Amino acid sequence: MKRLSIFLLVVVAFACKENNPEQASAEAAEVYSLLGLEYYAPTAPNAKLDSNLAIAQRNFDADPSEENYIWLGRRLAYKVKYNKAIDVFTKGIEQYPNSYKLYRHRGHRYLSQRKFDAAIEDFTKAAELMPATPLELEPDGVPNKINKPLSTTQFNVWYHLGLAHYLKGEFDKAEQAYLKCMEVSDNDDLITATVDWLYMTYRRQGKTAEAQKLLEKITPNMTIVENDSYFKRLKLYQKKLPVDSVLNVSNTANDADLALATQGYGVGNWYLYNGDTAQAIAVFERVVGGKHFSAFGFIAAEAELARLR
């Protein structure tokens, strides 16, 4: 298994670099993975993303406000231009040093780059600066299917701080952040996301009773708009879905590769909790063999494989 794993990593690493050799030689990688791979921004044009970025740039050029720093950075990040996005957020923080929103968004992109310590520092600073109330609805850069933002700045700061600690294996600190996040999870989608990661955090600490009790928050009558993959993972943990139905993602599903990363990581965890490390590794390797290298499930699978090896 170990020899095969190393072979697969070499193949994937070669593909990551060779798919776009001109870009690889001209630009620094956007992501250096926890498994030694390099990932680059796609070069294929995307009319919608390109248009949104052009608008954000024009708005910023006309008025370098805090909000326009945020949107320029966000639009660059959606193009997987993480290095440039972080540079924009950093310059924005120099101009607006008390902007918890700029810290929140820069921290997110440090997570994308696997720079967990830097992300923790940014989210911790954002938590210190942001008001506890009222909850501030955060506008979506990529609208959901009902075209209605569901998350708040407060939720996103605590959620991503918990995730950064989780990815480092600092489960006690992740627990504290997710408990704060639960306090500001005010709709079914946010409750589902927080319960999912807090459940996994409890399981990693051997807090089985707390994890089981937490699952009581997940009920069949919940209205899920964005976090269907998390909802499926939780139903697996509740033993209401078989493992194969969660792992096997239809190619016709919306963003099937993202669903594979998200649901696959949950399945790998399920095997890990149940003592089948070999099967867990196989599932994690399937996840990191996908294309969605910025997905949290993908990053988490990388972290697990790095630790297990």
**What is the H/E string?**
HHEEHHHHHHHHHHHHHH
Strand order of the largest sheet: 1-2
Number of discrete helical segments: 16
Largest sheet: 2 strands, antiparallel
Identify the CATH class of the largest domain.
Mainly Alpha
Structural class: mainly alpha
Strand percent estimate: under 5%
Number of domains: 3
What Rg, in angstroms, do the CA atoms define? 19 Å
**Weakly predicted, low-confidence segments:** 1-15, 17-25
CATH architecture of the largest domain: Alpha Horseshoe
The N- to C-terminal Cα distance equals: 11 Å
CATH superfamily of the largest domain: Tetratricopeptide repeat domain
CATH topology of the largest domain: Serine Threonine Protein Phosphatase 5, Tetratricopeptide repeat
Mean pLDDT: 90
How would you describe this structure to a colleague?
The chain is mainly alpha-helical and 309 residues long. It has 3 domains: 84 residues, Tetratricopeptide repeat domain (Serine Threonine Protein Phosphatase 5, Tetratricopeptide repeat, Alpha Horseshoe), CATH 1.25.40.10; 68 residues, Alpha Horseshoe (Serine Threonine Protein Phosphatase 5, Tetratricopeptide repeat), CATH 1.25.40; 70 residues. A two-stranded antiparallel ribbon has the order 1-2. A hairpin with a 5-residue loop joins strand 1 and strand 2. Helix 6 runs parallel beside helix 8 and helix 8 packs antiparallel against helix 9. The N and C termini lie close together (11 Å). The N terminus is likely disordered.
